[in-house]
Each structure stands twice: as structure tokens, then as C-alpha cells.
Write a structure and sequence with these properties.
Blueprint (H helix, E strand, L loop, with lengths): L5 E3 L1 H31 L7 H25 L1 E3 L15 E6 L5 E7 L10 E3 L3 H6 L7 E6 L2 E11 L1
Parallel strand pairs: 1-2, 4-5
Antiparallel strand pairs: 3-4, 3-7, 6-7
Helix pairs in contact: 1-2
Length: 158
């Protein structure tokens, strides 16, 4: 089975590399110190601090492995290839909500980098997948639990 590639912007790659470095250089050592201190308290069979620290260590190691795998399969979005006539990965898209008239600007990113609170939506999300390869003026309908949302693509930028 081949591993799925991780589509990232340059910014997303840097953030992921920084998080990995932080986990390896800071968090690993903090947890190792907690484990060492818990062992010094004596009997570890009934030591909740030791159990907590060991669980946290397992979580951090799992996160490190996950990040390493994602980075190993990273494919950068070539910023030069981002088009402005059609929506592609990396595009900044201005959408107009046709019900309320609001305009929102989203960047289309890979799943690992998606963060709606930062206006970054995944190319696999309901809205992201509907607007990929579309042009300015296109109206899309997205089915959500609350009903159907209608958006019009107002602008496409890099």
C-alpha cells in the first residue's frame, strides 16, 4: 500500500517542521524528566504521575511518527503554478454567500493544513472540492446538514 501524499504550502511545511522539532527537542525531554521524577518518588505501580507521564510520552512519540510520515510524503504546492483564472490548490478564493451577501476569502490547501478559523479550507472539504477547477462567476451549491448553501466565486488570487 502506498502512502497518501501530504499536500502542503511552503508555510504549512515550515509549521509542520517546527512542530516536529519542538516535539523532539523540548517535549521529549520534558516528559523524560517527569518520568525520572516520578520514578524517584518510589513505587511506580501505584504512581499516577508516572502513569500520566508514560501516557504522555506515548502520545508524543506517536505524534512524532505521524509528523515524520506526513513530511516524508510531502508534496509542496508550487506557488508559481497557482492560477488566477481557475481555482487550484493554493488559490485564494473570494466567495459570496448568495443567501446573506457575505464575502469570505479562503485559501485552498491540503487536508493536513486545513484550518477554517484561519480561512484555510481543504481541497477535500465540501466547499473546497466543489470550487476546484471552477472559474470566477461560477455558482456552487453545497449540501450541509442545515440545508443547501449557495456561493458564487467572486475572485481568484495567488
Amino acid at each position: 500500500m502506498t502512502e497518501k501524499e501530504t499536500i502542503l504550502t511552503v508555510e504549512g511545511l515550515k509549521k509542520m517542521e517546527q512542530k516536529l522539532e519542538y516535539l523532539k527537542s523540548v517535549r521529549r525531554h520534558e516528559v523524560a524528566e517527569r518520568i525520572k521524577q516520578a520514578i524517584e518518588f518510589g513505587d511506580i505501580s501505584e504512581n499516577s504521575e508516572y502513569e500520566d507521564a508514560k501516557n504522555e510520552q506515548a502520545f508524543i512519540e506517536g505524534e512524532i511518527l505521524t509528523l515524520e510520515k506526513l513530511l516524508r510524503n510531502a508534496k509542496l504546492i508550487d506557488e508559481e503554478s497557482i492560477q488566477t483564472d481557475v481555482v487550484t490548490l493554493g488559490s485564494k478564493v473570494v466567495l459570496k454567500d448568495l443567501e446573506f451577501g457575505d464575502e469570505l476569502e479562503y485559501t485552498i490547501v491540503g487536508t493536513q493544513e486545513a484550518d477554517p478559523t484561519d480561512f484555510k479550507i481543504s481541497n477535500e472539504s465540501p466547499v473546497g472540492s466543489k470550487i476546484l477547477n471552477k472559474t470566477v462567476g461560477t455558482i456552487i451549491e453545497v449540501e450541509v446538514p442545515a440545508g443547501i448553501l449557495k456561493y458564487q466565486i467572486i475572485d481568484i488570487k495567488r
